[in-house]
Amino acid sequence: MPSKSALRLPLIRLALAGTSALALVATAQAQEAEQETASNGDSTALETLVVNGSGGVITADGYVGISSATGAKIDTPFLETPQSISTVTEQQLKDRNPQTLLETLAYTPGTRVGAYGFDPRFDAFFVRGFDVTFTGIFRDNLRQPAAVDSVFKNEPYGLEGVSILRGPSSALYGATGAGGLYNLITKRPTEDALREVQLQYGNHDRYQGQFDFSGPVNETDPVYYRLTGLLRDADTEQVGVADDRAYIAPAFTWKPDEDTKLTVLGEYSRTKTGGTATYYNDPFTGEVTDIFAGNPDFNDSIQKQGRIGYEFEHRLNDTFVFRQNARISTLNIDADWDFAYAPNADDPTLLDSSAGTYDERLTAFVIDNQLEAKFDTGAIEHTLLAGLDYTKLRFRALDGRGVSPPLDTKNPTQGRPVDAIDFNTRTVQDQWQVGTYLQDQIRYDAWTLTVGGRYDWVSTDTDTTDLTTETLTSVSQKDKEFSGRVGLTYQTDFGLAPYISYSTAFTPNAGLNQETKQPFKPTESEQQEIGVKYLLPNSNTLITAALFNIDQKNGLYFEADGVTNIQVQRGKLRSRGFEIEANTSLDNGLSLIASYAYTDVKIIQGPEGTIGNYVSSAPQHMASIWAHYTLPEDGLFSGLSVGGGARFVGSSYSNDENTSKNSSRVLFDASIGYDFAAIDQKYEGLHLQVNATNLFDRREAVCTAGYCHRDQGRTVIGSLRYNW
């Protein structure tokens, strides 16, 4: 059914990536970067967003990320990372107050977040023209797997930041996609006390309360805690589609000495939304209407998910550091959906509908072992990283299809009772992945050569049972592949760092090709990239630019006929483009992020009628700018802060046949805040903030893979926050 559709598959797709872990403590290179920034006259001290654990580290000053472990699994300054990398810092999250992962990423270059319009069910997005929903999401640098509708929900309030590595990145991370990876960094315990409570109210009857507490457990033991949570009751712009959530995330860190630390991270959430959220598409004109295609009486989707894991790090001596990171996560989604797809033959004011129900469970265990060694060979410095990781995943899906009463276009919001639907099929899939990797960062004078390689073994067993006939179909497949990366950077004394790199990626695809009745071939990709990064002297400003060419073969995509969807395999895609990004946070209270991306992604080999065409919903031009300004403390408007942003999305084709187009558009966002301490110090810690997304309520059509949606309308959220 088309809308659900854009993500739901009739067969199972588990695109796993090799799991990995990041170092916690900033390395000597990050410390040098900090000292250099200080020596350049920047009076604002750098912050390490992640201060405990080894799942990730972003050293940042306001909006400006300086170093991250995402690019090399070892904390490395951006100027030495031979690949395009970006961050969404903690300060950005506070100023923009995003409510979804898509809003969190909306201002990062090359990231396409609106291809499916309004849809609170999935965090579905693209980068450099490639879908990264199933292959590109990492949590604390361990793979966050997904399958069919079992896509983990990501709560922005539970994040310290996001670190983004663009382009194929399998040399360390295993089975990832062509677009890159997005590492979501969980809030961790802080050594200093942190206490925050917040109340939010927004349009569509949105009510939310949240809290964040952290600090030492007591004054004597080296144990620290963090507890983050929220409770939300909310409607949306679509009748019958809720956006309710309960979220709790406890964390503990034990640090018995400077050489050892253990961090335990947990999470549980329950989210209620709709089984479908789409608008009805007129089958004769192909245009999207304002009619909700679903059924308020048969449209609940309840997702429960939990995770528990640990990050362990121990320095053996001056040369070696051992790390082990592990997590088990589970997800259960139980949903009903009803979808109107065509006018009734006898009465065109009625729309024929079909309905279905599904129950999916996804359980994944990931563990990554690393050994880091620092040593010199003459004048050459080495940072050598060796690792072995393992992933075990089980996915079970029950699916049923039935009939439902037609939708009355004269009263489209009226509910329609649907009889209980029995399950028709059961699918169980087990997948194992083992990967071993080796990387050396070789530094000589101002040069850094990064060389890495990895080998993966993947085994997948899939059993599908037709419950009406008890017919069992079993498919087994084994995949193995080598991936590599080589990159060279040169860092000048004045902050300019050009680089060049070559990298590859490998993604085993589970499931069955409906066209050939054979298992899918692995998806493979390779990238050539050349770029430059510039950390301006005497200014907290980072500018990066990159030219890239990516070739992908055997990628999976959706083929829709208006009623059903199947997953098929396209021969080859090619993406070429240019990206530029600037981040700054100045002493005068102004912070700014700006980016532009040109992406030319074409079908080189594929179905008849699409060869040489552009990939649907992949705009060639995207640009964005966000600025936030805190007015001077001694001025007339002391305590006031204002922010505003604009996101330009260029035109794109609505289908792979390139027969129609999505129009270009500009979406505006805004914020205003007030610190009550400006009135009197007795109000210190009390802060009011209002954020508006899509300020002018543009709700134009956006079509992807031949099916059309509408942009999400205006949302306005007021927040009253108190810190003490």
From TrEMBL:
UniProt domain TonB-dependent receptor plug: residue ranges: 80-180
Protein name: Ferrioxamine B receptor protein
Compartments where found: Cell outer membrane
One Pfam family per UniProt: Plug
A cellular component annotation (GO) from this entry: cell outer membrane
GO BP terms, alphabetized: siderophore transport
An example Gene Ontology molecular-function term: siderophore uptake transmembrane transporter activity
Family recorded in the similarity comment: Belongs to the TonB-dependent receptor family.
Annotated signal peptide: 1-30
